[in-house]
Design brief:
Radius of gyration of chain A: 21 Å
Distance between the termini of chain A: 28 Å
Structural class of chain A: alpha/beta
Number of helices of chain B: 11
Family (chain A): Belongs to the leucine-binding protein family.
Radius of gyration of chain B: 19 Å
Order of helices and strands of chain A: HEHEHEHEEHHEHEHEHEEHHHEEEEE
Largest interface: A-B, 42 and 44 residues
Helix content of chain B: over 70%
Shape of chain A: elongated
Organism (chain A): Streptomyces carpinensis
Pfam family, one (chain A): Peripla_BP_6
Shape of chain B: globular
Oligomer: heterodimer
Number of domains of chain B: 1
Structural class of chain B: mainly alpha
Number of domains of chain A: 2
Protein name (chain A): ABC transporter substrate-binding protein
Largest sheet of chain A: 5 strands, parallel
Keywords (chain A): Signal
Number of strands of chain B: 2
Helix content of chain A: 40-55%
Strand order of the largest sheet of chain B: 1-2
CATH superfamily of the largest domain in chain A: Response regulator
């Protein structure tokens, strides 16, 4: 999922200023007194975690932080890095691209930071990536699905792009003998727009259904009555709702109230409790996801059990991805055998080349971008479920 | 076609419910309250917290929204806007500072709701009220849609009557025309400003609760999106006119519905706001706006 800040113009200004600062700081590079240039690992490897702890996407930041905290606790308890401890310095970006860029610049200047765990919002990530890449500071993102986030070998992402596992929706619809579909997508969000305009039509060709209508809604749209009526009157076999978390329950409810009884397919924004307010009205909605707490993978099960034991709740995809990001970074540091930013980047590249098992199951990388098998998640009216492909 | 008319009427009523309180405060005491969206959201949010603990019927939830909205709005007036008006060097500066003050107050309410809800949508699923959809063959209509349209018409009529026919309403209109002369004529500006802010906030609260029932859920940020639409409806209809706000909301809703039905939907804001812009070029005061007379 890609999230946008309304202050994009401010973000551009911040990026401009930050690039200038980064250019100046990058000239020096790591010095001999840096923790990063010491042979072997220092007693503490410090990571800056830039997350949305407040603001419109706080649900992503707070859940991601829980995943990171669990991973760091395990890493340190297991002495995964020997006597060296991983230390996370959590910073709130407040869903602001300027704030995120400012924090990244601070991390670049302060050589005690070995790497960054990046924010979920594409707007913030695209503000950080150019300066981090130029300054040689590794950044591992979760979410942040738009173009411009992965700009080189120092920028990694451990949330697979939705289009890479979205074929699960096609397989599901084929098993339901779906012949026609309608698409409703948030036209202000690049990831959702790409899914609506490219991925779904490609699925239609591959799995033998026709896209009858494809409509965009505004990024801040609150009411979908007209869209729902239009779709319900056309009676397609399936509807793709590619919207943001707060829009999902409203659109699903209004579609059902307008008498639509066909399949509803969404994306990961349907998870994380966002369908709870729709309750039983949303029963039967499915969405391909990179993670499900009900997945039967051994590595997923271990993560879910540990998470439940620590927090007393079921983890969502934001927590799982951030957990994997922290473990990916720890593996890279171990592989590097050093807290040097350059060595960590090389370590991350080695880990990415071999892949690893994480909360999201088996993870491989296409360049610096992760790939997972994915699962088909669903809502039964009360809880999230795992939907077996071909089930009725 | 009939369904589109019903949908446009519902959307227009949603906009009107939201815009009504904002229009009252702006058109009478000259306060453009940018915290209106957050008061709308926060009233629904407080109601959600109460309904979560005790299943309440819709009328009680609406009453809670009204009280919460009125209390917050009065607090905003007394704690933020009044001190600004007292200290500002002139009227123009006071207006600008009130705009900024409103944004600041909105930020506080928004941050609290975001913190508690973690930006996950919230609603009244525990309420005793249940949505029923009536299929009349040619249209589908829900009981919430009926409540929304009736409430918007009733409240707009009530607000219009109050301003036109009641003694306090006439005093408020006098303030809107010339605050100094109104004061010289014995109008208690402070008392009436608090009263109009209470009414404005109460309307925001009622709108917040009704809209949450209609949409099923809202998020902490929902007020911001409605703020822009309400602003457009008020400017289009003419600041200070309840009828103008109603007509502005109706035009906005009709245009949006037509664009949604006839196009892919991406152009909704561009077309509807473009039309408003064109109309304001022809009639800058809005459809029912008063002609401003300045005496030197």
């Amino acid at each position: 999922m890609s999230m946008h800040s309304r202050t994009w113009y401010g973000g551009i200004a911040a990026v401009g200023a930050s690039v200038l600062i980064a250019g100046l700081t990058a000239c020096g590079g790591p010095t001999s007194t840096d923790a990063g240039s010491v042979k072997g690992l220092p007693s503490t490897v410090k990571i800056m975690s830039i997350k949305e702890m407040s603001g419109a996407v706080a649900f992503a930041g707070t859940n991601a932080t829980k995943g990171i905290d669990l991973a760091v606790e395990q890493i340190n308890q297991q002495k995964f890095l020997g006597d060296s401890k991983l230390e996370i310095d959590l910073k709130d970006s407040a869903a602001s691209a300027q704030q995120a860029a400012s924090l990244a610049t601070q991390a670049i200047s302060d050589k005690s930071y070995a790497a960054i765990l990046g924010p979920a919002s594409s707007a913030q990530a695209t503000a950080i990536s150019p300066i981090a890449q130029k300054s040689g500071l590794p950044v591992v993102y979760t979410q942040a699905g738009s173009d411009g986030v992965l700009v080189g070998n120092y920028t990694y992402r451990v949330t697979a792009p939705a289009e890479s596992y979205y074929q699960l929706a096609g397989q599901y619809l084929k098993s339901k003998h779906v012949k026609t579909a309608a698409v409703l997508f948030n036209s202000g969000n690049p990831t959702l727009t790409q899914l609506g305009q490219k991925t779904v039509p490609a699925l239609a060709d591959k799995y033998g259904f026709k896209v009858r209508s494809s409509d965009g809604v505004q990024v801040t749209a609150q009411d979908f009555t007209s869209n729902a009526s239009k779709i319900a009157q056309a009676k397609p076999d399936a509807v793709f709702l590619l919207l943001t978390g707060p829009q999902d329950p409203v659109a699903v409810t209004q579609l059902r109230q307008d008498g639509y009884r066909g399949e509803i397919v969404g994306m990961t924004s349907m998870g994380a409790g966002n369908l709870k307010t729709a309750g039983k009205t949303a029963a039967g909605v499915v969405w391909p996801s990179n993670f499900s707490a009900l997945d039967t993978n051994e590595s997923t099960k271990k993560f879910v059990e540990a998470y439940k034991a620590k927090y007393g709740e079921v983890p969502n995809n934001y927590a799982a991805e951030a957990y994997d990001a922290a473990w990916f970074l720890a593996r890279g540091i171990k592989e590097a055998g050093s807290a040097s930013r350059t060595e960590i980047q090389k370590g991350l590249a080695k880990v990415a080349a071999s892949g690893f098992e994480g909360a999201q199951g088996a993870m491989t990388f296409d360049g610096t971008d992760v790939r997972v098998t994915g699962v088909l998640a669903g809502w039964d009216g009360t809880n999230e479920t795992l939907v077996p492909l071909g089930s009725s | 076609m009939a369904q589109d008319v019903i949908n446009a009427a519902t959307l227009g009523s949603l906009y009107l419910l939201f815009a009504l309180g904002m229009s009252l405060a702006w058109g009478t005491i000259g306060i453009l309250n940018f915290a209106h969206g957050s008061i709308f959201m926060f009233s629904a949010f407080v109601c959600h917290l109460i309904v979560r603990e005790a299943a309440l019927p819709m009328p009680v939830a609406v009453l809670i929204g009204l009280v919460v909205g009125a209390v917050i709005s009065v607090l905003v007036q007394v704690l933020a806007f009044e001190p600004i008006q007292r200290r500002a060097a002139d009227h123009r500066r006071a207006e600008l500072q009130i705009l900024v003050g409103g944004i600041g107050m909105a930020g506080v309410l928004l941050a609290i709701a975001q913190r508690v809800t973690k930006s996950v949508p919230f609603g009244f699923s525990e309420s005793t009220f249940r949505v029923h959809v009536y299929d009349l063959g040619f249209v589908r209509l829900s009981n919430v849609q009926i409540v929304i349209v009736v409430a918007a018409c009733l409240l707009a009529g009530l607000a219009g009557w109050w301003l036109r026919s009641s003694r306090s309403g006439l005093a408020l209109r006098a303030i809107g025309v010339d605050p100094e002369v109104a004061t010289m004529m014995g109008v208690d500006r402070r008392k009436l400003a608090v009263a109009i802010m209470a009414a404005s906030g109460g309307l925001a609260g009622v709108a917040g609760v009704l809209l949450t029932y209609y949409l099923g859920s809202i998020a902490a940020e929902s007020g911001d999106a409605f703020l822009l639409k309400a602003f457009a409806a008020i400017v289009l209809g003419g600041v200070g006119s309840v009828g103008g706000a109603a007509v502005g909301a109706a035009i906005l809703a009709v245009v949006e519905t037509i664009v949604l039905v006839q196009t892919s939907g991406t152009w909704v804001d561009a077309v509807s706001f473009g039309l408003i812009f064109l109309m304001l070029l022809v009639r800058p005061r809005g459809i029912f706006g008063r002609k401003e007379v300045r005496r030197t």
